[in-house]
Amino acid sequence: MARKKHYSAAEEAQVDMTPMLDIVFIMLIFFIVTTSFVKESGIEVNRPKAQQASKKPSANIFIAINEAGIVYMEKREVDIQRVRANVERMLAEAPEAQVMIQADQQAKHGIVVKVMDQVKAAGIDKISVSAEND
Questions:
Q1: Which sequence spans correspond to the domains of the chain?
Q2: Which of the four, 70, 82, 112, 118, has the lowest number of CB atoms within 10 Å?
Q3: Does Ligase show up as a keyword for this record (predicted)?
Q4: pLDDT tens digits for 58-103?
């Protein structure tokens, strides 16, 4: 006598979730690797107003100069002579990096020029200076 086996609905409808989890983890890794992380300068600067200011692509390296002439990179104070070394280190991490200088409108022109000189010495020729639209 042959007996038929009766299966419950729960036993018949099992789906293997392993391939779906593998795909989700691969997508997560892909998005983490392709995301560019922006490192802000770390301080709020009162930027000067400019009538001809234009939107530029976002930079990867931000350098802020406050009204007292103190230079900030990655939310920490940096000596002007150390700007070049810091930019070179950041450039090694991201070779296509761009520099944005956010100088306070009360900052001395000479300090901004010294910072720009240090950035150029590090190997970056295109430097953007941040300003607000009028």
A1: 49-133
A2: 82
A3: no
A4: 667 888 998 888 999 888 898 989 999 999 988 888 878 888 888 8
